[in-house]
Amino acid sequence: MNDAGEAAQNPSLFIDKVERCYKQGDSSLDILRGADLALWAGQSVALIAPSGAGKSTLLHVAGLLEKPDAGEVYVGDAPTAHMEDAERTALRRLEIGFVYQFHHLLPEFTAIENVMLPQMIRGLTKVEAKRRGSELLEFLGLGHRLTHRPAELSGGEQQRVAIARAVANGPRVLLADEPTGNLDPRTADHVFGVLTKLVQASGLAALVATHNMDLAARMDRRVTLRDGLIVELD
Ligand code: ADP
Ligand code: MG
Q1: Gap from CA of 22 to ligand 2 centroid (Å)
Q2: pTM
Q3: Angle ∠(43,121,75) on CA atoms, nearest 5
């Protein structure tokens, strides 16, 4: 984790005047037109906007999966827009966790193995990866499901394993793209509950795209995308 001194000065993630435009034949779609957003350690922010507004685009740019056409994305104090692809990939693996609407867990591996894998790829021993993974899954209420495969888990359990996998390497930032969009309301509520508990306990900064206003109301801040800009709600 990052030291408290730095966390006090810099946002965990800072999106600075980001522009993103998709060319389609002769025309172009200006999705982000100078979007600004600071995400602070231990803070959960809901991104609420209609379909097509650019939520996924923003998350991809924030997560270093796409380069902005203009502007800058800082991860901690590191500007990333002009990094080489290999450097961006390395930074993304270390500092950013993703959760999607569908869990994308590896079906032939158990819950604990799915959480161990990214840690072992990073260089941790099997024993250490298992210890940390078990602790994380227990924190998320899955201590009794460690050796189940994804097909043997409920939708809510699968998403909690996906969250554990996303934060297994202790990233600075968690980005989630409609993580409960595929769940019934009660399960979505529970998954959101453990997600916000995790953010508070770990000092992560989380940006979560969602359509669910009730869930968004429980997060620290709410923002939307309007004409390619980020606007604070409330
Ligand atoms: P949201 O997640 O809010 O539904 P997206 O960020 O997925 O919105 O998409 C915003 C707009 O950009 C949509 O109109 C979509 O069709 C368009 N778009 C997204 N990705 C691409 C792409 N790779 N190429 C062209 N257009 C795209
Ligand atoms: Mg989307």
Answers
A1: 15
A2: 0.93
A3: 30
